[in-house]
Amino acid sequence: MAKGRGSAALVSIPLILVLVVLLHSGLTEAVTYTVGDRNGWSFDISGWTRGKRFLAGDTLVFNYNPAFHNVVSVDLRGYNTCSAPPRARAYGSGKDQIKLVKGENFFICTTPGHCESGVKMAIIAL
Prior knowledge:
Layout (H helix, E strand, L loop, with lengths): L4 H19 L8 E3 L24 E5 L7 E4 L1 H6 L7 E3 L3 E5 L3 E6 L11 E6 L1
Parallel strand pairs: 1-2
Antiparallel strand pairs: 2-5, 3-4, 3-6, 6-7
């Protein structure tokens, strides 16, 4: 009657090991970051990314006063020149949530003089 019980245990152990490996193999949950923490999306934002590890799928929450700022997702050229290409995605709610894509992600504020004064951010998501 006890015959066969050992074979179930032999199948269970490898299955458990496979599940443990899968759970620890880089499967991570996306993280939500509030840009600028308490200060929000504003001047002197450049140091905010320091020490953070961003992954594709993470969400950035941009909190700001829409009467003074906006967020525009741009390419490297737009970031370097503080200008938004015609097809750039612009946000203006003051509580924008933007999901990072793998690779380079660039954001600027297009209110005159703001990007040039540091309201811009570059993130590389792994």
